[in-house]
Amino acid sequence: MSAEAKVETATQPNMDMAMKSADPQQASMHGSEFGSAWAPRGLDPELATAISQIPPERRAEIEKRVRRKLDLVLFPTLLAFYILNYIDRNALSFAKIVGIQKDLNLSSIEFATCLSILYVGYCLFQVPSNLMLSKSKPSLYLPSWMGVWGVVSGCTAAVQSYHGLVAVRFFLGIVEAPFFAGAIFLISSWYTRKEMATRCAILFGGNMLSNAFGSLIALGVTQNLDGVHGLESWRWLFIIEACMTVGFAICAVFLLPNYPHNTRWFKGEERTIAMWRLIDDVGEADDTQSDDVSIWQGFLLAIRDYKVWFLVWNHIFLTVGAGIVVFYPTVVGTLGFSRKITYLLIVPPYMLAFCTSVYGCHHADIKKERTWHMIGSLCVTLVGLIILASSLNTGARYFSLFLVTCSVYIAFDCNLAWISNCIPRPAPKRAAAIALVNMLSQLGNIIAGYIYPDNQSPRYWMACTVEGVAIVCAIVTTLVFRTILKRENRKLDEKELARGGEAAITEGRLEKVRYIY
């Protein structure tokens, strides 16, 4: 059986299975419509009654409306979050072009340490934060941290030494940690598995757009504010970007939703459908409103699941393979153009990468497939790295940057979507898994900070070699993980056949739902 066939919507629990819940009396009241079918674990009897009263045609119409609202409100908000998150984080790379390394008298290794130390702080707080988020209101939790990271980032403008810069960057990592894993968790609390890759691509597009917009902001600031009030242009860069972040954090409180059961701008049938479609997708109610699984239990469930560790290693390899992103302005600077042209040349690869990643992941969602989309994109990344390391031709090197940025993000986004595809419930476990994958993958960013020494410019052969090896490792890991998921699906098929075609039920979960690979 093909991967596509195994994850067809037909394999998901029917809405007609809704009524046989923890309340036998409720089920018997609707026996003519629902029969004696099993209901998803944790299904509330009131929700079961409400969904039974909505005709199937109307369900589809309301679901489209719910999805449209989310796409028009949730995603622009999260995208702006992520753009500002990466603008603040990567401002140091842009500041290098205009002299922060010289002004603070930093060696190449010291500057690399300032870049990498952020990810140490980032790793420390990510898992605890995401577990807390699973029991909190995202509309308050995430904007609060955004405001704090804006203030900390702005403090970079006041540093006078290497030690001051290291301290600010470390704390910036801690206060930025809640956002990205939290955003992925929030998306997985609203969207079905077959919708995740596209949405992860749109969110991660904030990374690409931040580099494009950050470059233009840096150009404007350095061209017009250098020396104003006695401050260097890089100090103004941090001040202006911090003000943007804090301002948007205040607005985000009123824009960001919570969860399907408690978001203020979903009422009545829309709220019912928003909750039901996730239950229908995996055969189990999400439990962001329940105390059945504690934060600690969710963490233990995640670290005991071998699938989480495959995803962790794959994401580490992908992060190392995309290490060029950390030094992108520096690499573009080796093309030999003026500072102004260098800033402008950063924009096109990232704008195109945003389009290609969204398209590639949308295609992966349509095909309900992950492996070959990831491997195909990673092969293109390898070609780009080989060209970058082997050629001194300006046109060829710039073309290689297009190849790398336009391909590696597709694999990134598919791997992020894979987390929720493989670990949909319970919510604390999913939150811990997302945070673990994202947290430990930051080891790749720490490594990347030290493989671009100034003395290897412009080819950066060591960086290209390390990144190429990591990409090959990611390809191998992806293939092995695909084989494992195929085997798991085959076991579920055998259980189903042993029951005469009736789906196996384990711990309240309908095993008829298959892994996407």
Task: Characterise this structure.
- The chain has a two-stranded antiparallel ribbon with strand order 1-2.
- The longest helix is centred in the N-terminal third of the chain and has 42 residues, at 56-97.
- The protein starts with a helix and ends in a 7-residue tail after the last strand.
- The chain has helices spanning 3-6, 24-29, 31-34, 45-52, 56-97, 100-103, 108-133, 138-154, 162-188, 196-224, 233-255, 268-282, 295-303, 306-321, 328-333, 339-367, 371-390, 394-422, 427-448, 461-498; strands at 505-506, 509-510.
- The chain has a single domain (48-510), classed as MFS general substrate transporter like domains (Growth Hormone, Chain: A), CATH 1.20.1250.20.
- The model is unreliable at 1-39 and 503-511 (pLDDT under 50).
- It is mainly alpha-helical.
- It is globular.
- It is a multi-pass membrane protein.
- InterPro entries: MFS (IPR011701), MFS_trans_sf (IPR036259).
- This is Major facilitator superfamily domain-containing protein.
- The chain crosses the membrane at residues 70-87, 107-127, 139-160, 166-188, 200-222, 234-256, 308-329, 341-360, 372-392, 398-419, 431-453, 459-481.
- It holds the Pfam family MFS_1.
